[in-house]
Structure prediction request, 246 residues.
Amino acid sequence: MSRRVEVGFSRRIQLDWLELTANLVLAGKTSPEIQTQLDDFLQDKLSIGSQSQSSSRSKAISILQKIWVRVPAKLEPLRDEALELLVNTPQHQHLAIHWGMTMAVYPFFGIVADSVGRLLRLQGKFAAGSIQRRIGEQLGDRQTVSRATQRILRCFVDWGVLQDTSEIGIYQSANTQSVDNRKLAAWLIEAALIASDSESQALGVISQTPILFPFTVSLINPRDLEMNRRLEFFCQGIDQKMVMLR
Prediction:
């Protein structure tokens, strides 16, 4: 792995919390205003009665802010287009947008998603312990990594992309969502490239990458990619179609 990956995403975050945060940004709220509104909203959901800066509520708000408000400067163009997509995309496809932003901002989230996607393709279901071992081998077998991995797996269940089985600790795939909006598909491919720390990949590979296991991305062509000025299309060899981050 060519980069140092920090856990960062260490709380069980709900989709409606992400949606609320993005909507507050769209409403023109400042970061301090969003902080206050999220704190009020989560008062009865996390760390009830606590005002500690290290509470679960404070940590969850920090994650939400980093994904949609205080994003790394290099990801601001990705975030700005994501906000436009939220406005112009049906509600049922918002999951793909939150997924893309989360894995771009928090590569650890993407590493877990990639491992899950690979095991689902191999066997259709998997044990939580198998994912934790895989992640531990990549990032170090630390308790922090193990706990965060388990919380992300529970997020996947909460978000409807995984299902519990009758066996404790065994998960299976839920229904995948079709991404047929070409602009969203190109944006999601950009997010996947960022999350995988890859400058370029074969178009057919990245559009079916395990990191996007909850989605079926429609086939896209160079004209679709041209809508995204941060992506570049080129051919490698005779017929290998490639996509690259500018």
Residues 73-246 form one domain.
